[in-house]
Every structure is written in structure tokens, then in C-alpha cells.
Amino acid sequence: MTPETKMETKATCPYCGVGCGVLIEHDGARITGVRGDPEHPANFGRLCTKGSTLHLTARPETRLQFPELRDTKGEARRRVGWDEAIDVAARRFADVINEHGPDAVAFYISGQLLTEDYYVFNKLMKGLIGSNNVDTNSRLCMSSAVAAYKQTLGADAPPCSYEDFALTDCLLIAGANPAYAHPIAFRRIEDAKAARPDMKIIVVDPRRTDTAAMADLHLAILPGTDIWLYNAMLNVLLWEGQVDQAFVRAHTEGFDALRDHVREITPAVAAEICGVKADDIRTAARWWGEAPAAMSLWCQGLNQSVHGTHNGAALIALSLATGKIGKPGSGPFSMTGQPNAMGGREVGGMANLLSGHRDLANPEHRAEVARLWGVDSVPEKPGLTAIELFDAMHEGRIKALWVACTNPAQSLPEQERVREALARCDFVVMQDAYRSTETAPFADLLLPASTWGEKEGTVTNSERRISHVHRALPPLGEARADWRIVCDFALALGPRIGRNDAARLFPYASPEEIFAEHAATTRGRDLDIAGLSYALLDAHGPQQWPFPEGATVADATARTRLYADGRFPTADGRARFVVPTGRLTAERADARFPLRMTTGRLRDQWHGMSRTGKVARLYNHVDEARIELNADDMATRGIRSGELVRVKSRRGEVVLRAAASDEIRSGQAFVAMHWGANTLNSAGANALTLREFDPYSKQPELKHATVQVEKAELP
Ligand code: SF4
User: Which UniProt keywords apply (predicted)?
Assistant: First the structure.
């Protein structure tokens, strides 16, 4: 490649919710490198270890390059053409729909998809097929944060931005390890602390993570006790006169009930429940109360809980009670795990949502979406959420499943049950860029999708910022863009289920046309982006929502500081305090399963490792699946670091290498979520986790399961 043939294409990193801008270096035929986009406001040119090795993941031999089909379970799949693949998919889905009804089919999709892909999947299921059975792996990621925002602030609109890290005086990081999971956001936090050493950083996490290690105060609470900690902080704020009574009176509802609830939750009471010092709880509350600007940052540690919604609501209550919201450096900020979980929420790509942050349960919202799409109605019956969907499949009620860009046979809890469900499903389609996922063996039809570097569309990152992602190269082999596959399927399916309007509903020739329709559906909503277009994003770079028609880039700062006027998108304009309910954890440790296992991410791996697992240098940090244990627990069991151990829960078992860790206290254990089929016995952490979920968000408690550990006697 000569310097003249070197080209750069603007895209975003397809890993985490920070949404860093990347410049893909290529020669028109091959991706040769990647560098951070210095103009992107999420990262200003920086990339972490995962982002900076993206070009090394572009390996053709790992890709699914043409459709493969089998007629009978257990047979080897054979290569087929796209026409046959789409025809068979449409026939098999139509047969199920016509015989068993539309609720016998389901889509299980992904926060890795671009917004345009998400939009057409959603429209196909809810507007053409006539079911709401479309859910996503984002259910495992941020659905509790969505529910918490809606219950308290009235809309799923995280009000903060990354620039707030540099403006806050107190940052409370709760159930998150951005040093590993959101590294470039963490760099910005480190920069803020370096520039203003008086800024207080509080980290709440059962483990002493790299994030906790840099905190001014680390509250190593026992798993599942989050609500009691935040309620006790509110107790202190009340007792010490740090509640902003004027803000509470003018802009909120329900404070008296929460005040009565937390009256008895003193620091001493919470200290007992949470396993931390009462004085440390007082210190955290004082730092929050005395700081001119205070913000919280949370992620899966709060969300993946049987009371994930109320974890978030209890944290948000601290912002509302002190009036520290809608101001620079203040507010509750949930990070999304995935690169486009936020975009999926915007198009309503979940079983309980509709386009433009509308609610399926709201008849007016259903009527609005039906009118916008030009269909008679959107079905009223709630769709099946992730765990419910696989339960229904296990029971034989879902007979055809379409999986796109995700790997449920690795990532859902109670893996044995999930794999049984997949094996029982009459017809499974897997649309993916990679062929060697744990889900692939269950697929009757594999459809090759284009991937990072080959796709155009938009993504929205954790700070509500929409980026236009460009395509550097054509799709590999016969792979096609995800939105194109969905539209081709819709056109083939429609006439077979008596819907001759499929061509009118799916007329798109480009992702830009889909984006324009999506933007129009948001008009007048809290996330109004009717003023955005690909052309504007190209001319002015990524933009935060809202961006209504007539808005300008110049007025962004004032427009995107949500709730600055103290008005919230509820019926009366007031935010709500929520009195929390719920048990500590679904499972309690006992004599048989005495260790409390949490799960989480490693710095250099991503999800089920379909990309990062292909890059040798990303194993330098941690090179195999392992269980981290406190040295005391290892000594009690006669286990030494490096030995193989058998880890059992009530649902399954897995063999892992033991590693002593001083990051966790006795009685706890940690297993990274990434490994699956590549562990010693082809099972990862989710062989052990359980499917119990939050009643509002339906997000499962992936952060806690009780286990026993013993030396492995291998055959
Ligand atoms: Fe990619 Fe996240 Fe790293 Fe940014 S911080 S480069 S988005 S993995």
C-alpha cells in the first residue's frame, strides 16, 4: 500500500457504551489499522486496549461468509444462496405464524446492532408480524436503569454528559468498574481528579477494583445491599439538614413517604446490613451533601439485581433530594454497557417499548405508532422479555426464533436450560458476522451479516450522543447489512401471512432512509431528533439529543442540559421519589453453597469474545477463565493459586483455575463473564447464574449466585 492509497473512514468503536470515535485505516480492500478520532467528543483521539486493536479482529477466517442451511436437526448445514435462505426462513416463520399465531415466533437481537437495524427489526415484529416478541441482550444490561429513570424522572433520559466529570465536586461511582468496562470514560475521570484533587470520588463495589483503588472512599458493601446504603445516606442528609427542601417542594412528589421509610435506616442499621462502617456512610453522605455539584455513575452492579430498578431509584433520590440535577457536574448518570443499547431504546427495540420512547402499555402510544407506520394497529399484548422468551421456548410456546448479533447460549443465565430451549425450538435462525459462537450449533439457518468496518448507520452512546458510522469496505464474502437482511425477510414473509403491505412498510434503499423515518417518529418526544440527518452529522459531528427541527449545533449546550428548569417529563412536571421494596438477593448463602459469586468484565475482553478472543495481545492481561477467591477461603479448602477447581451452583458446574485475590473479602468469589465454550468444560459463569429477575425491568440477577468450590478431580 502506498501512502496515496491509504484512506481513513470515520466510525465508532463497536465495544462499549462510551462510544469512542475511530478512524479506520484501509486501502479500499483491507483494514490496516485504526486510530482514535481526535474530533470525536467522546474520546478526543484516545482509544483503550480493545479499541486500539480493532483492526486485528478483521480476520476473514473467523467470519460467516455465506448462508448455511440444514433441513433436519442434527444434520450438517450446507451452503445455500441468499434467495433460498430468505425463502426458507419466510416459509418456516409463516408456517408457524399461520398455524400457531404471531406470538409463537420471536426475535432476540442486540445492543451491538446499529439504530437502523434495530428500527426495522422492531417494525417487522410489531408492525407486520403482529406480535411484540422482540427483545434484546440489552435486557441483561440496562433495562433496570431505564425503569428507574422512568419511575423517577418520567423518561428514559440520562441527564449527564462526559464533560460533567470535569465539573463535579463529588462523583459517586456505584456498581461500576469503568477502569475496565468503560476505560476512556475512566481516563476522563482520572483527568478530572488530577486537575482538581479536592474533588471527592466514592466507589461502592463489593470488590476493590482498579476503579475502587483510586477512590477517596471505597464502600465495599455486601452484594445486594445497595438500597440500604443509599437510603442511609439520605437519612444522614435529612438529619444534617442537607436536603434542598425548596427544590423538593417545587419539583418533586413522594418525598414524605421516602423520608418516613429511611427514618429508621440509620448509618448504624445500614452498616450492619451492608457490611461497611457507619462512619464511612456518614462521610459519603456529607461529601455528597456539601459538594456544590455531585453526580452518580452506575452500571451493571446496580442493574443486574432482583431490585435493580429500585437500586437506581434509590441512587437517583440522592440527586433529587439535594437538588443536584440539571446543573453542570450534577445528576444521575447510568452508563450503557453496549455500544448502541441507547439507540435500541430510542427505536423501542424491546418487548415493552415502542418507537420514540413510547410505552407499549399506553393505548395512545400504540395508536401513534400505528399511525406513523401506516398500519391498522400495534398489538396490545406485552411481548416476552429475554428470560421469559427462553422460558416460553423451553415450554414449546416459541417455535421459531431469530437471533441477531448476540449469543444467548453463552450470555443468558441458567445456561443448561437456555441450551435445552434452543434445542427444542423447531426453527432457529442466527444472523451474525461470526460462525463460531456457542449459539451457532443450534441454528438451522445461518445468515452472514456485515460487521464493523462494513456497515453504515448510527449509534447513540451513554451520553445520548448520536454518531454517524461509515462503511470502509464492502461486506466480506456474501455477507449483507443487518437492515438489508431484515427488509428482504419482511418482503418475503409479508405475502405468506396475508400482509400485502410489506413492500410499502419496508421500502428502504439505504440506512439513511430508515434513519429519516426513525427521526420523524421522535417528533415531540423527549428524545426528539427530528432535526438530525446524516448530512448534519457529517457536517458538524456527533450530536446529543434532543435535537428537534429548527435546533442548531450552536445552541446544543443549553438544549441538552436536561431538567435545568426543574421540570420533568411526568404528567405534572414533577420528579418522583420511590419507596424501595425487595429482597436482598434471590439466593442466600448457606452451608451447601457458602460463597457469593459476582460476575463482571475484564479490562481487555468484550462479551463472549467473538472479537476480542481473536486478538492474541488481549490475553496478556488475563489469559484464561478463572475464579478469583479470597486467600482465606482458598486455604480453608486446601486450594492453591493455579489449581483447577470445580465450581458448583444449584444450576450447574464449571471447572476453572483458581486465583487468589485480595480484591474480594472472604465468603465471596468473582468469575469474569467472557468465557463460555472455551473453558475446560465448555461452560462459563452463566452455567452458575440464575434467571431470577427484577419485577419492573425483568433484568436478571447476573451479579449474584451462591456457589461451592472444591478441588477438581479430573478424569
Ligand atoms: Fe471502545 Fe469503549 Fe475502549 Fe472507547 S472505551 S475504545 S468505546 S472499548
Answer: 4Fe-4S, Iron, Iron-sulfur, Metal-binding, Molybdenum, Nitrate assimilation, Oxidoreductase
Expressed in angstroms and rounded, the spacing between residue 48 Cα and the centre of ligand 1 is 6
Residue having the nearest C-alpha atom to atom 4 of ligand 1: 20
**Distance, CA 51 to ligand 1 centroid (Å)?**
5
| pLDDT for position 416 | 94
Task: Say yes or no to pLDDT of 516 above 90.
Answer: yes
User: What is 68-141+342-459+476-525's CATH topology?
Assistant: Rossmann fold (3.40.50)
How high is the pLDDT of residue 583? 80
Separation of CA 389 and ligand 1 centre (Å): 31
Instruction: Return the best residue to mutate from 48, 162, 605, 609 for the ligand 1 pocket (most ligand atoms within 8 A of CB).
Output: 48
Residues with Cβ within 6 A of ligand 1? Answer: 13, 15-16, 18-20, 43, 47-48, 50-51, 182-184
CATH superfamily entry for domain 143-335: Dimethylsulfoxide Reductase, domain 2 (3.40.228.10)
Residue-wise pLDDT for 241-300, tens only, equals 999 999 999 999 999 999 999 999 999 999 999 999 999 999 999 999 999 999 999 999
DSSP 238-306: HHTT-S-HHHHHHHEE-HHHHHHHHTT--HHHHHHHHTS-HHHHHHHHHHHHH-SSEEEEE-HHHHSST
The predicted-structure confidence for 588-610, as pLDDT tens digits, reads as follows 999 999 999 999 999 999 998 88
Averaged confidence pLDDT in the chain:
96
